[in-house]
Amino acid sequence: MKQQTQTRRIKILVAKLGLDGHDRGALVLCRAFRDAGMEVIYSGLFATPDRIAQIVEDEDVDAVALSLLNGAHGTLFPRVAQQLKKRKIKDVLIVGGGVIPDEDKKILERSGVTGNFGPGTSLDLIIDHITNGVSKLRKL
Known about the structure:
Blueprint: E1 11-16, H1 24-35, E2 39-42, H2 49-59, E3 63-68, H3 73-86, E4 93-98, H4 102-110, E5 114-117, H5 123-139
Parallel strand pairs: 1-2, 1-3, 3-4, 4-5
Helix pairs in contact: 2-3
């Protein structure tokens, strides 16, 4: 895996939303992000969009990685984006992952959720997406 080369480490929140108790993939991501030099915060299971937005605000994270496997991504991912906008948080990269049908990915992108990676996606690809996305946001 590629190591991060920015001067300030990326702080990322890995969040499990709603009634999805499957966290193995999220925990793998936590370790991969840590190994790539990021500071990682894990929300724990069953987080709400409001709780995630509160953690983003309190912890001043650079990115939030949303993980959902139960099919509620179309509702819950956009709600996280809405909660961040409501709090006037514009400089945080929102990345989605889980079992997301291709036809839902464009809808999620329009709501501000990028990536929308599925099972089997290379960890390097996800890390590069986050690193590049945060770098662009930091330049704004």
